[in-house]
Design a protein that fits this description.
Helices cover 25% and strands 19% of the residues. By secondary structure, the protein is of the alpha/beta class. Bound molecules: S-adenosylmethionine.
């Protein structure tokens, strides 16, 4: 597996921390399938780390059987959905490309894996434990044994648009300014960042706002990790969004980290839950039923051929609807890499990240676990919240352009009259180009949910549209 490199050195202050962006633009060379592990009666995620584990080399590239996964990486772009994700596939390894044989479970199949025992659990439960379980450093000295995101700063492992350039925070500040006008300049203007990481976006937006508005802003970071040292006192830190928000709720790369269950179609075309152990070995559990099956029928109807996988977005729908419900008047915005009903990846998109590398999704607390977001399903769930208006889905490229982010190069003439200004403008243009690159961050999707106000991100007078 190649080490992921920053795509370009445009103003990142992360000291060379690799980007998940490059994990897609430089496709990982890891294999795409699980490899056989007969000792366990299950399978272990294979791929690039197989060699390190002394694997048998039985991994199979997803493209060999003509099927694809969603592109790996924290960035996805329309039209670039070649297979790079690293989720394991339940298989006996010998039947690469063909239907996987179900292996007997130790305790019998279960509906969702929760009661499987023997260390087996559904992916939702396993990821919840791996990412957010246990104690965090905030619980006191010596308790820093919690899940990945309780211990680790996201920026230490991957780069989001927030880290890529301060222009992202500038655009969010512009959105807040427009919203402030639409709300009639309320005395208190809420700015709530859900999945705030270490509060970097809030700090950037506050710095980008004019003082007359910044003074009225009530900033709140919503995070499962502990409050970091050095955050300004005025920024509230909370495990849940406050109720009755008047203003902007913004969630960049939050929903992809909301754990979900994974299913796989068996040799007969029956969808079954995928169970996983902490070492990443997988096997099939019980058949999918109830609301899980109903969600898949509605939102992921393409999953059915033997070996195909899908990820049940119910948890993300509920999380998003819950966030929208906290907005009394204003906007809720989710930004993430996504797929739509007609473009779901046949092999799913679950993958892992650690130290900037795309790795097998092993739920041992040692890596980020992420899967693309069914944003259309989230949009429907948010729109069903009482008081919510019509949601808008648009690419980050379109959203940022509507907010004034401009990737055009400065005129050459400026280089002669103001060389330093020219270089600054050139650097800014490079950062804007990265944020709006359709093959990178620009391909992210913005889900914009207005509540009681017209959306300040609606298409302009030119009639430019970017329909859901
Ligand atoms: C990929 S990071 C994104 C961080 C930041 N928004 C950025 O763009 O750089 C996802 C963050 O969401 C947080 N998170 C996930 N689920 C959450 C929840 N239910 N409530 C609050 N934070 C959550 C994680 O702890 C993690 O810090």
């Amino acid at each position: 597996m190649r080490r992921v490199r920053p795509v370009c050195g445009t103003g990142s202050d992360l000291g060379g921390v690799p980007s998940r962006l490059s994990a897609r633009t430089v496709p990982p060379v890891r294999g795409e399938r699980c490899e056989t592990d007969d000792r366990a009666g299950g399978v272990a995620p294979g791929g690039g780390r197989a060699g390190a584990r002394g694997g048998s080399g039985a991994t199979v590239d997803a493209e060999r059987d003509g099927r694809t996964r969603a592109p790996g990486g924290r960035v996805r772009a329309p039209g670039a959905r070649h297979g790079t994700a690293t989720g394991g596939r339940v298989t006996d390894g010998a039947s690469a490309g063909g239907p996987a044989e179900e292996r007997p479970t130790e305790n019998g199949p279960t509906e969702n894996g929760a009661a499987a025992g023997g260390g087996w659990a559904g992916w939702r439960e396993a990821a919840e434990r791996a990412l957010y379980g246990g104690a965090s450093a905030s619980d006191g000295p010596g308790t820093d044994t919690g899940g990945f995101f309780l211990r680790e700063a996201p920026a230490a492992h991957f780069r989001t648009a927030v880290h890529a350039s301060p222009l992202f925070a500038t655009a969010v500040a512009e959105l807040l300014l427009r919203l402030d006008e639409a709300l009639g300049r309320p005395p208190v203007l809420d700015l709530v960042d859900v999945g705030a990481g270490r509060g970097e976006l809030l700090a950037g937006v506050l710095a980008a706002l004019p003082p007359r508005v910044a003074d009225r802003v009530r900033p709140c970071a919503v995070e499962r990790a502990a409050r970091p040292a050095g955050l300004p006192d005025r920024v509230a830190w909370s495990a849940a969004p406050p109720a009755g928000i008047t203003g902007l709720l913004f969630a960049n790369e939050w929903l992809d980290n909301v754990p979900l269950d994974v299913v796989e179609s068996d040799g007969t075309g029956q969808l079954r839950h995928v169970l996983v152990r902490a070492d990443g070995r997988e096997r099939r559990g019980g058949p999918v039923g109830g609301e899980d099956a109903a969600w898949l029928r509605r939102w992921w109807p393409s999953c059915g051929s033997p070996g195909e996988r899908a990820e049940i977005g119910l948890t993300r729908d509920a999380a998003w609807a819950g966030a929208v419900a906290t907005v009394r008047r204003g906007l809720a915005v989710a930004v993430d890499y996504s797929h739509a009903r007609t473009t779901r990846p046949p092999l799913g998109s679950l993958t892992g990240y650690r130290d900037g590398r795309q790795v097998a999704p092993v739920p041992d607390g040692g890596c980020d676990l992420t899967a693309h977001v069914a944003m259309d399903a989230c949009a429907a769930a948010g729109a069903a919240v009482p008081g919510a208006g019509a949601p808008l889905l648009l690419t980050q490229r379109t959203a940022l352009r509507r907010l004034g982010t401009d990737g055009r190069r400065p005129p050459l003439e400026l280089a002669r009259t103001d060389p330093a200004g020219y270089l600054r403008a050139l650097a800014r243009a490079g950062e804007a180009a990265e944020l709006t690159d359709p093959a990178g961050f620009g391909g992210f999707e913005w889900l914009v949910q207005p509540v009681g106000v017209p959306s300040p991100l609606a298409a302009g007078p030119t009639g430019e549209t970017d329909p859901a």
